[in-house]
Amino acid sequence: MDRYLRLLYLGDAGEQRDARTEFDMAARHWRGVGCERDPTKARAILDRIHDKGKGISAFCYAYMHAHGVGVEANVEIAAEHFRKAREIYDRNAAAGMAVANNNLGYMLAEGIGGERDQARAARSFAEAAERGLATAQYNLGLCYLNGWGVPQDDAKAFALMRQAAESGDAAAAGALAMMIQEGRGSTRDPVQAVQWLHQAADAGDVASWCQLGFAYAAGYGTVRDPPESRRWFELAAEAGDSYAQASLGLLLCTEGDEAEFERGWQMLRWAFEQDSSAAETYIARIMLLGAPHAPPEVADGFEFARNAALKGNPACMYLLGYCHEHGLGTAPDREQAVAWYRRAFAADGEPHAAAYLGRMHARGEGVPKDPVEAFVLLSLAESSGLDWVPAEREAVGRALDAKQRAMAERRLAETKSRLGAPLALRMAS
Question: What whole-number distance in Å separates Cα of residue 105 and Cα of residue 293?
Fold first, then answer.
């Protein structure tokens, strides 16, 4: 699951709060999306953020006008106040204020309030990180992870993320879990990854609640435990996370009784109406494969998946490839299957597409047999939750000679670097 841009501000007790999550919650209350419309709650959230310093105040005012929350949308006023926020952070950073250095880096990296300058952003993060600001350590780690303004370096990224996580930064702990899960900067270790997810979740990281829900649903790094999976998804869904709402909907549809299926299906439809690509994917999956309380609707499911794939949903591109490979809703066609798997993987490294395409390369089915490419793809598919992937990867890896292994490891590192990381810069205040 992707991590969104974060802005942090200090609460009344000095605690770090996620302003971006609160902005989104205010927007939902203002519009009545996923909850009852309550402008009073929306204004209370915005007032709380607006009162925490001149920089975040200007940023908050810009957000309100950019998104029409609490005020009429006005892009000119929004741009003016984004520029004002950047100027405030620039002045304060020059005066040696670590939080201002971090937030200036954020705005430089994202091109908010002025030109984008990733190299200067990285330097600004580094100054704040040297003063011990965990958010800046996280952001600088993210720069090294993706090669934003600095040479890409997984080892430096891992060290910075660990430093921030050990200081109690929840998002850094979640990022560290992702890096350990993917073997970036450390040995791949699903069990340790789940341990870091628990640390992040206990500190209130909603994204990690979602990831734990997935881990317990799939038995990834832990024993499979649907009730525990549901508990984490319920927490994240209650916090307003649309991905969790879609995931919980899928869990209820596939693991629950008939009444829970109805609730789950309603949740999926609601999330789909709010443009959740996860919900779109899960609806297509249930239509194609069925569920305990819903027989397959293969023809309609194929068309639904096809339309979603053509609109750019990578997971539905994978489903369309699966349909062509296995003859669901269409005649079996390995050439089309390979084309859709490749398109899904190229879009965002879709792990299920990587798994099936890797297996086809391992066996020479529909594509030339290529153990090196198979090993790379199967390595990138371990987060798919497909139970056959680890054994398939291990079998392919055992058959590689030393030259092939070196080539595979080099290609794997290059592909990971190209795909980047599903994380985001955060802003402190």
Answer: 51
pLDDT at 206: 85
What's residue 24's pLDDT? 81
Quote the domain boundaries for residue 187: 153-239
Given a contact cutoff of 8 angstroms between Cβ atoms, the answer to whether 50 and 60 are in contact is yes
Number of domains present in the structure of the chain:
1
Look at residue 189 and tell me if it is in a domain. Answer: yes
- The first and second tokens of residue 36, run together, are 């009852």
Return d(Cα 275, Cα 28) in angstroms, integer. Answer: 14
Reading across the β-sheet that carries 6-10, which strands appear in turn?
A: 16-18, 6-10, 426-427
* Tens of pLDDT, residues 224-278: 998 899 899 999 888 777 888 898 999 899 888 999 999 999 889 888 877 889 9
CATH of the domain at 190: 1.25.40.10
Which residues partner with 426 through β-bridges? 6
Residue 317 domain flag: no
Nearest in space to 138 (alpha carbons), one of 116, 117, 163: 163
CB 426 within 8 A of CB 107: no
Is 276 inside any structural domain? no
pLDDT digits (tens, 9 = 90+) for 215-232: 998 888 999 998 899 899
Domain membership flag for residue 165: yes
Give the integer Cα–Cα distance in Å for 275 and 287.
18
Which DSSP category does 71 fall into? S
| CA gap 199, 293 in Å, rounded | 36
Q: Which residues pair with 307 in a beta bridge?
A: none
Instruction: State whether residue 329 is helix, strand or coil.
Output: coil
Model pTM score: 0.73
Alpha helix stretches (DSSP H) within 219-313: 226-238, 242-255, 258-273, 277-289, 298-310
What residue has token string 């060290």? Answer: 159
